[in-house]
Structure formats: structure tokens, C-alpha cells
Automatic annotation (TrEMBL):
SUPFAM superfamilies: KorB DNA-binding domain-like (SSF109709). Keywords: Plasmid. Coiled coil: none annotated. InterPro entries: HTH_ParB/Spo0J. Pfam families: HTH_ParB. This is ParB/Spo0J HTH domain-containing protein. Residues 38-91 form the ParB/Spo0J HTH domain.
Length: 95
């Protein structure tokens, strides 16, 4: 099929026993290497960490993800934008 004709390879890592925070950090690093992560992806990841109880405040989250408090707050504020604006951001990730 189509996969046999492709010249690209896919690296797969199987990691067992990884806690959610370490998984988040590894995924974020991998996305940064490929330059595929958008600021909206980051915001959704931050929200997920808060929703799952890994951080109770923006300050805790900033320490957890090793970013400045102001930057974390600004990124999370994106999620307060109207859905129509989020749709535009999602459809034009490189701009």
C-alpha cells in the first residue's frame, strides 16, 4: 500500500510507567523538534494538566512546565477567546 512507497521513517518509543508530567514534557519536546506544536496546542495541554489536577493554579503550572508565570497566563488566556477566533488560529497555525 501507500506506506511501502514512502521514503520517510517513523520512530516509535514505547515508554512504560511514565507519569503524566513526564509524558507531557517528552511530547512537548518532540513537537518542538518537529516544529509542529502551535500556541493553541500548548494552551490545550496546559488546560489538561490543570483539569487533571497536576497543578492547582497558574503559578503551580508555570513551575511544572518550567515557563514564566506571565507567559503561562497569556497562553491560557487564549482559551477564553470566542470559538470563532480559536477556529481561525487553528486553521492558520504558522501565522
Amino acid at each position: 500500500g501507500a506506506l511501502r512507497n514512502r521514503s520517510e521513517t517513523l520512530d516509535v518509543k514505547l515508554l512504560e510507567g511514565l507519569d503524566p508530567i513526564d509524558f507531557y514534557r517528552l511530547a512537548r519536546a518532540a513537537n518542538n523538534e518537529r516544529e509542529q506544536e502551535t500556541v493553541l496546542d500548548v494552551a490545550l495541554g496546559y488546560k489538561k494538566l490543570i483539569d487533571q489536577g497536576h497543578a492547582k493554579s497558574n503559578d503551580e503550572l508555570a513551575a511544572l512546565v518550567e515557563e514564566g508565570k506571565s507567559k503561562v497566563s497569556k497562553i491560557l488566556a487564549l482559551l477564553d477567546l470566542p470559538q470563532s477566533v480559536l477556529d481561525v488560529i487553528a486553521s492558520h497555525p504558522k501565522q
